[in-house]
Amino acid sequence: MSLPENTTVLIVGAGPAGLTAALSLAHHGYHDFVIVDAVAIGQNSSRAITIHSATVEALASIDAADGLLSHAIKGKSIRLTSRHSQIFEVKFDPLKKYSAHPYALYIPQNVTERVLGEKLQSLGVQVQRPHRVVGMKQNENDSRITDVSFEDGQVIKARYIIGADGARSIIRTIAGIGFSDPEGPDVGDNLLTQMVSADVTFEPEPVGPLALEGHLNGTIFSGNFFLLTPFGNRFNGELIRDGKPTTKSIFRVGCAIPMKSGEPPHAPPKEYIQDLIDTYGPACITSNPSLNPTPVKIDQLIWSSRFRSRSAIADRTFTRLGAAILLVGDAAHIHSPAGGQGMNLAIRDAIFLTAAVTKHIQACAENPDVDDTILQEFADTRHARAVEIIDYSKKLLKFASLTYDSYAWWMPCSVASIRDLVLRILGRFDFVQSKVAWGLSGLGRR
Fold first, then answer.
1. Could you tell me if 250 and 271 are in contact, meaning their C-beta atoms sit under 8 angstroms apart?
2. Cis peptide before 282 (omega within 30 of 0)
3. What is the H or E stretch that residue 347 is in?
4. Under a CB-based contact definition with an 8 Å cutoff, are residues 99 and 441 in contact?
5. How far apart are alpha carbons 309 and 335 in whole angstroms?
6. Is the peptide bond before 293 cis (omega within 30 degrees of 0)?
7. For 260-387, where are the E strands, in sequence order?
8. What is the Cα–Cα distance from 321 to 149, expressed in whole angstroms?
9. Distance of CA 74 to the CA centre of its chain
10. Up-side HSE of residue 343: CA atoms within 13 Å toward CB?
11. Which helix (H) or strand (E) holds 112?
12. Could you write out the DSSP letters of every residue in 246-290?
């Protein structure tokens, strides 16, 4: 498909951040933009699954939340458990005092992208695919325009370029923007340096509290962390593409892979996922009769993937190469999945960014010589917010991955055991529930 020769705003990347940026521009009444993506079709894998309260509010502010609300599971809580019992539960009810959306939405990322994409189409905007950026250079005739070249030879002249093209961002790379951990090089010994995620069904289907919709469950065991989220059969049509259709409940599972266990397969097979469940998962989904009186096994492996997790942030989220170049989402920052903050920050970034861009466009219309203060203030504010989120996710990860090894010969209990005991006690107090829910929701760090 041919691209226009000129546009004011070019959005590169049609994941959650790019789609939200397009929706936000349209909401502000601005339509001189083009959104492109390098792949022919959207992603089919489910990946991120949590949309927190502050992000729902942000999407509602641009009239883009209704579709997600009608499709998603409204999460009641996040639970922290041992393999056999609950340690702590973060209930979202206390957020009613602060938000019209006192819950998290549990919805696979591919469904989120489909819903946002359909909303964009309803506004008359189509994602242009597949168009891969291969170069950018300042326009010879206008110092505020960049010529963006694509793999197929086409060129777009743009005044603003939004890089929403992921952690390996070509926009960031061509612009010469560095990307590193704000605390220095990653030593690679973190438990969550490598993880495996999968969507599965079980036979027979698991029973018990952890198998109920509306809760994200994190099991801590032997210094490792295992995630279980029941989807019911709400997303079966979107998640099952090449496999056999099923009416069974689908479960998202995820597990850190200790470095000593080696590198996991690219697309881990059923046997590999089953072994992780039996080694680290909650008892109710294991096949081990000594742990689970009604053993269950994986019936269908719908999707699986491995990924490496590290923290990094762009040196700058705004620069110029002729046009104003701005980064959002994973192009601007990445961090561990602890707390489910990544996609949420990306979506909120996009909404704040487009408000700044439209304000700058209006200022330029009134005064062609206007400086970049509006854009730089956005960049500085969101960079600081990203640093804060990276620190928050690191603390959550460190807290969750404490080991049960004895602290010292003179202290036969472990740090993890003390953590569990303290959490069991503190979880009885409403003010603790409220504080933890507030932290996860993003309402205090929009």
1. no
2. no
3. helix 342-366
4. yes
5. 7
6. no
7. 297-308, 312-314, 318-321, 323-327, 333-334
8. 14
9. 17
10. 25
11. helix 109-122
12. --SPEEEEEEE--GGG-PPPSS--HHHHHHHHHHHS-GGG-S-TT
pLDDT tens over the chain, length 446 residues: 799 999 999 999 999 999 999 999 999 999 999 999 999 876 656 588 999 999 999 999 999 999 999 999 999 999 999 999 999 999 999 999 999 999 999 999 999 999 999 999 999 999 999 999 999 999 999 999 999 999 999 999 999 999 999 999 999 999 999 999 887 765 444 555 788 999 999 999 999 999 999 999 999 887 788 999 999 999 998 888 777 788 999 999 999 888 888 889 999 999 999 999 999 999 999 999 999 999 999 999 999 999 887 889 999 999 999 999 999 999 999 987 777 788 999 999 999 999 999 999 999 999 988 999 999 999 999 999 999 988 888 888 888 888 887 766 666 788 888 888 999 999 999 899 899 999 999 998 87
Residues 100, 69: Cα–Cα separation, whole Å: 12
Both tokens assigned to 256: 């850190």
Quick one: tokens of 199? 């969507």
CB burial string 169-206: b at 16+ within 10 A, e below: bbbbebbebebebbeeeeeeebbbbbbbbbbbbbeeeb
Greatest alpha-carbon pair distance for the chain in Å reads 75
**Residue in the block written with tokens 């861009």:** 357
Report how far apart, in Å, the C-alpha atoms of 439 and of each of 22, 57, 143, 432 are.
28, 15, 44, 11
Signed CA dihedral, 17, 117, 8, 356: sign only: negative
Measured CA to CA, the distance from residue 162 to residue 350 in angstroms comes to 9
From CA 214, how far away is CA 235, in angstroms rounded? 14
Q: What's the rounded Cα separation, in Å, for the pair 190 and 398? A: 9
Residue in 186, 214, 238, 248 with CA at minimum distance from that of residue 397: 186
Label the pairing between strands 73-75 and 194-203.
unpaired
Residue tagged 């009239």 (tokens): 63
Taking each helix axis as running N to C, give the angle between helix 16-27 and helix 342-366, from 0 to 180 degrees, rounded to the nearest 10: 40
